[in-house]
Amino acid sequence: MSDTTAVQRFYRFHALIYDKTRWMILHQRRAAVQRLALRGDADVLEIGCGTGLNFRYLMEWLDPIRGRLTGLDFSGDMLRVAERRCRSAGWNNVSLVEADATCMSLGRQFDAVLFGYSLTMIPDWRAALRSAAEHLRPGGRLAVLDFGGFEGWGPLGPVMRAWLRANHVETVQPYAEALRELLPDTTVHPWLGGYCFTALARKEM
């Protein structure tokens, strides 16, 4: 079984429980969106949007008429939950796309791109970053919020990394460094001893 297939099977089940459980572990989501400093009329792409758990934070910034949000995920099960969320909230400016982040072709560039706890679950994460940078317009911002390496957690660090790896999350990769290679104007904001980090990049004009 490929890594991608394993992750798809994982989320087929977790689509049923995702919203009820992730509030305990997916921290700093609103703060990451705030770093994007979105305009009301921004055209935003979230890669690995899952059930749309981050949409409410993005919609706090977006004008319901002039702003646009595209949520992309390769799990149809997760997107079906996201669709119900959008319908219930009345978000008519949200489009959902089922696609592979490593080879997506959306036909336009975006003002902002967000990975919210998704990059560490993509086997070919470097390809996903490259594709995201290609879909970012000049002057646009790209934010990666994800688990860190738990460097400040002492003996609990290896335990956390092993638990996440068992759930298809690979924390020990040079994500921020790779983003900086693509977009040199990148700053990294770690949180809680390496529990998570936000890397914010700006594409040159």
Q: How would you summarize this macromolecular structure in one to three sentences?
A:
The protein is an alpha/beta fold and about 200 residues long. Helices cover about 35% and strands about 25% of the residues.
Describe this structure in words.
The structure is a single chain. With 205 residues, the chain is α/β, with parallel strands linked by helices. It is built from eight helices and seven strands; from the N terminus they run H-H-H-E-H-E-H-E-E-H-E-H-H-E-E. It has one domain (3-202): Vaccinia Virus protein VP39 (Rossmann fold), CATH 3.40.50. It has helices at residues 3-14, 18-21, 29-36, 55-59, 76-89, 125-134, 156-166, 175-182, and strands at 43-47, 68-73, 94-98, 110-116, 136-147, 185-191, 196-202. Helix 6 (125-134) runs parallel beside helix 8 (175-182). It starts with a helix and ends with a strand. The model has no long low-confidence stretch (mean pLDDT 95).
